C-alpha cells in the first residue's frame, strides 16, 4: 500500500446487517516476473526497471531482482482500483520492454529461476536468507495481496477468523502457476505448494481480538519460526504496516480483470464478516482439517476440478464453491455497488478460465519459450 492511513469513504448502500454502510477503502499489491523474451528465463533487471520508474507512484522492489511489485493507491471503489491496476501494469510493462525483457504475471517462473544469487540487495532480504536459506531460495514467486481498511485491530482479528473458510476459493480463482522448469507441475498453483513450506504460511486461527492475535505472533517469533512480524506469512493477517486486513493467499493473477474480481470479493467478505461480528454471530463452523483440505484441493485443481467444502469436508465442483461465496457476500456486493463488476468478471473467468487453465492452453499450442513469454506478456498488459 502507498499510504499509512486508510480513511473510510462514505458510499451509498446498506450493510448486510441492515445498517448504513461506510465502505472500507482497499488496495492491491501485485508481483510480476521479468522474463527473457527469447529463452523465458528470469532476468535480473528489476533495479534498472525501477530506476526508470523512480518518479512513478506504486512500483517497487521485491525479494528477487527478477521481480517487480506494484502497489495501487488507496481506493474507494472498483472503477478507481481497476484504473490503478491498468496504469501500473502498463507502466511496468513498458519499462520492462525498454530493458529488453517482458513483464509477466505468473506466480512461478515457467522455466525455472536462480536461487539466492538473485536476491535483492537489501538488509532485510539478506537477513531472511541467512535465517531460512532453503525456503528463501524457493520464494521468488509472485502473489497478489489485497488490503481492506478496518477501523480497529480488534475487529480485524475477528474478521480474519471469519475469512478462514473462504480462502481456498480465492486461491482457486487466482490459481496461476502450473509450470516450472519447463514442465507441468500438476498443480494449478505450484506457488501455494512452495510457500506452504514456510512455518507460518497457514490459515488464520480463531482469534477473539488483537491481543489474541498478537500472542500467536509472539509465540511464533519466540520459536524462531519467523524473523520479524513482517515475516509472519499467515494466508490472511493484520498488516504489520497499515491499518488493514491483508489477504495474501492468492497467486498473482494473469489478467487485470481477475485481480479486480479478487479484490472486490475480498472487500465484500470483510464487509460481511464485520456485519456478523457486530451482530454477535459466531464464526462459521469450519474444521481446521477441512480448511487445509480445501486449500490443497484449490492448489491442485484451481477451478478445473473438485474442491473441498470447508464446512462439510465433501468434494464438490469448485465452481459450486464460487457460487456459495458469491451468495454469502451478495448483500455486501449490492451495498458496495459491486454486483455488476463481479458478475462481469466471473463471466469472463468462466469463458477464459483461470490463469493456470490459460497457461496450459498456451503451452499446448506454443512451440517455443518465445511464444509462451509473448503470450503471457500480452495477457498481462492487456487493456480490456
Distinct helical segment count: 15
From N to C, what is the helix and strand string? EEEHEEHEHHEHHEEHHEEHHEEHHHHH
DSSP summary, beta strand count: 13
- Classification by helices and strands: alpha+beta
Radius of gyration: 19 Å
What fraction, in percent, of the residue positions are helical?
40-55%
Strand % is: 15-25%
Low-confidence stretches: 1-12
- Main beta sheet: strand number and arrangement? 7 strands, antiparallel
Shape: globular
* Average pLDDT for all residues: 94
N-to-C terminal Cα separation, in Å? 24 Å
Describe the structure.
This protein is of the alpha+beta class. It contains 15 helices and 13 strands. The strands form four sheets. Strands 3, 4, 5, 6, 7, 10 and 11 form a seven-stranded antiparallel β-sheet that branches. A two-stranded antiparallel sheet has the order 1-2. It has a two-stranded antiparallel sheet with strand order 8-9. A hairpin with a 5-residue loop joins strand 1 and strand 2 (20-23).
Amino acid at each position: 500500500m502507498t499510504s499509512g492511513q486508510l480513511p473510510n469513504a462514505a458510499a451509498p448502500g446498506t450493510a448486510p446487517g441492515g445498517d448504513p454502510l461506510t465502505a472500507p477503502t482497499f488496495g492491491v499489491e501485485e508481483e510480476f516476473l521479468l522474463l527473457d523474451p527469447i529463452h523465458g528465463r528470469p532476468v535480473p533487471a528489476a533495479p534498472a526497471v525501477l530506476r526508470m520508474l523512480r518518479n512513478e507512484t506504486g512500483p517497487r522492489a521485491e525479494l528477487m531482482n527478477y521481480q517487480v511489485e506494484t502497489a495501487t493507491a488507496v481506493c474507494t471503489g472498483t472503477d478507481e482500483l481497476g484504473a490503478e491496476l491498468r496504469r501500473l501494469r502498463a507502466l511496468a510493462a513498458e519499462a520492462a520492454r525498454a530493458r529488453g525483457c517482458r513483464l509477466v504475471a505468473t506466480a512461478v517462473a515457467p522455466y525455472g529461476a536462480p536461487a539466492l544469487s538473485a536476491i535483492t540487495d537489501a538488509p532485510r532480504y539478506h537477513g531472511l536468507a541467512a535465517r531460512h536459506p532453503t525456503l528463501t531460495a524457493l520464494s521468488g514467486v509472485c502473489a497478489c495481496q489485497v488490503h481492506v481498511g478496518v477501523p480497529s485491530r480488534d475487529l480485524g482479528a475477528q474478521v480474519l477468523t471469519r475469512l478462514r473458510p473462504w480462502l481456498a476459493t480465492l486461491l482457486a480463482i487466482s490459481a496461476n502457476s502450473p509450470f516450472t522448469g519447463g514442465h507441468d507441475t500438476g498443480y494449478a498453483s505450484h506457488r501455494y505448494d512452495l510457500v506452504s513450506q514456510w512455518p507460518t504460511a497457514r490459515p488464520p486461527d480463531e482469534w477473539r481480538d488483537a491481543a489474541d492475535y498478537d500472542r500467536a505472533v509472539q509465540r511464533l517469533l519466540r520459536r524462531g519460526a519467523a524473523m520479524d512480524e513482517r515475516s509472519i506469512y499467515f494466508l490472511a493477517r493484520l498488516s504489520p504496516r497499515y491499518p488493514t486486513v491483508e489477504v495474501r493467499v492468492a497467486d498473482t493473477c494473469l489478467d487485470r480483470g481477475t485481480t479486480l474480481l479478487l479484490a472486490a470479493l475480498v472487500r465484500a467478505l470483510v464487509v460481511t464478516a464485520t456485519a456478523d461480528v457486530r451482530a454477535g454471530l459466531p464464526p462459521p463452523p469450519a474444521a481446521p482439517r477441512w480448511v487445509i483440505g480445501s486449500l490443497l484441493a484449490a492448489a491442485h485443481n484451481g477451478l478445473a476440478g473438485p474442491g473441498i467444502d470447508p464446512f462439510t469436508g465433501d468434494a464438490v465442483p469448485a465452481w459450486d464453491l464460487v457460487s456459495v461465496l458469491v451468495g454469502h457476500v451478495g448483500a455486501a456486493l449490492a451495498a458496495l455497488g459491486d454486483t455488476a463488476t463481479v458478475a462481469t468478471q466471473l463471466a469472463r473467468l468462466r469463458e477464459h478460465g483461470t490463469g493456470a487453465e490459460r497457461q496450459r492452453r498456451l503451452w499446448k499450442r506454443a512451440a517455443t519459450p518465445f511464444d509462451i513469454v509473448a503470450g503471457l506478456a500480452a495477457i498481462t498488459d492487456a487493456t480490456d
